[in-house]
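[SOLVED] Predicted holo structure with pyridoxal-5'-phosphate

Edit: marking solved, answer below. Original request kept for reference. I posted the sequence and ligand SMILES and asked for the 3D complex as structure tokens.
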Amino acid sequence: MTVAASLDWRERAARLFPGGVNSPVRAYRAVGGEPPLLLRGKGPYVWDEPGRRYIDYVGAFGPLLLGHGNAAVAEAIATAAVMGGPFGVTGPGEVRLAEMIRARMPSVERLRFVNSGTEAAMSALRVARAATGRELIVKFEGGYHGHADSLLVEAGSGAATLSIPGSAGVAQAVAAQTLVAIYNDLASVEALLESHPREVAAVIVEPVAANMGVVAPLGGFLSGLRELTERDGALLIFDEVITGFRVAPGGAQELYGVQPDLTVLGKIIGGGLPVGAYGGRGELMDLVAPSGPVYQAGTLSGHPVVMAAGEATLEQLTPDVYAKIDQQSARLEAGLQMNGASVARVGSLLTVFFRGQPPRNFSEAKTSDATAFARFFHSMLDAGVLLPPSQFEAWFVSAAHDSPVIDATLEAAGR
Ligand SMILES: *Cc1c(COP(=O)(O)O)cnc(C)c1O
């Protein structure tokens, strides 16, 4: 295919999809310019049309902890695909992947597979409301939990990138059920719980915020949330769609030693295919139909091909692999220190913020120099390094990012 032909794909996409994309951040509005037409990926690399190679730090926005085109994952997908299905009954793939998740994340005693993180977060809120008989939700400014109506209030990720942290089309009455606290600010949570006593069903939080750029929880923040919610009778929901099986073998809840009541999962557990899951204490999950009165269903939930990809992914994530990814990520962090910028990192999640200090919350993150970020993004792209196209997205390091790849990235950044 020629360059003209690839322009043709863009024009056709622009006619077909709003903004030419099927998810907003892909449109490159925050950095300007046209996204490359990417046709192939292997390990840490992606190739565009007409064949230029880039080191990839997008990682499909989270799922690809093993890099692109992992051989065992691809084989598992192919094997499962020729077996037929889905069959409309529970199968061994669902059982095996669920057991792997529970073994790594013991707070998830029972779970339900769905098809996206959005669906998982939405369903977890429904369980929380049913369990508590309360209606209000507390989320954090800049926290992203997918695009369910009640969670599109002061949201991060693509919503933050486009400066539409809320959304048109969300009923006022629905948005009013969502209260917004400040990340890393326990007092802001306490104030909301006190002004709405015994009305809050759940506090939902990304235990490491990764949709306002990476913002680590300050010491005591997560355990403080645990105490405040317990005292009030609200549930604590960890959205580990990004952090789950990335920041530690058992996710952020293992890394920080705080157990939520419910956990929302996605991304990595689908090995690059569409997936979500929500789970937690047995008695809470037993509220879900047909055990209980909370209705939630999905035609393609627990799809055997997706389960096989997830299983093949988790199987490869040994402690050694985590140690290696962490070591390479630390080298990247150290090498990226530059004037006028700061680097925030938790494990293989990393953001270069164009401000002097890493932010502690979303309003601080927003004071980053977006123009400097866009310049950096494009010079890295020219140098063959593909970064997430927004100051508010994390870079995703994978197990395939070895020393030569990190060295090449740092050389590009140095230039
Ligand atoms: C990506 C993401 C979601 C939404 O998952 P989708 O599969 O895109 O619907 C939810 N929460 C967090 C923290 C995410 O990063």
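OP edit: DSSP finds 15 helices and 14 strands in the chain. Thanks to everyone who chimed in.
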